[in-house]
Amino acid sequence: MTRERGLTPESRSRLRPDGTLLTWKAAGLSLSLVEGWLPFFMQWDNPSYYPGNLPVQHAMEPQGIAWLEITPRDPQRLKKWLGTAQVPLRLVDSAPGIHHVGLFTPRGIVVLP
After folding, report:
1. What is the value of pTM for the model shown?
2. What is the mean pLDDT of residues 1-26?
3. How many CB atoms lie within 10 A of CB 17?
4. Which of 4, 12, 26, 102 could form an S-S bond across to 67 if both were Cys, CB 3.0 to 4.6 Å?
């Protein structure tokens, strides 16, 4: 996915509070910082450490991302950038950026501003 976009994956890492070293590859971060609506790409070296796979306790009991509400500066660029990736996007007419995130919970979708 990164080659067709001209991106070079960078190795990244951080230590969890329990001392576990997390490592992953990331691509497109610098572009995403400039164009906040443009996603970046990550691949975990050990998928079992992917934060979305780790059990957490939270009052809302989030179960995943339902959708992202964004306004791209350039919708055609976004479409080309995503390629065949299946991303639950809601495109809205507003200032460019990410506006809301919908999270699946046992009580329905919770919207974060």
Report:
1. 0.75
2. 89
3. 5
4. 102
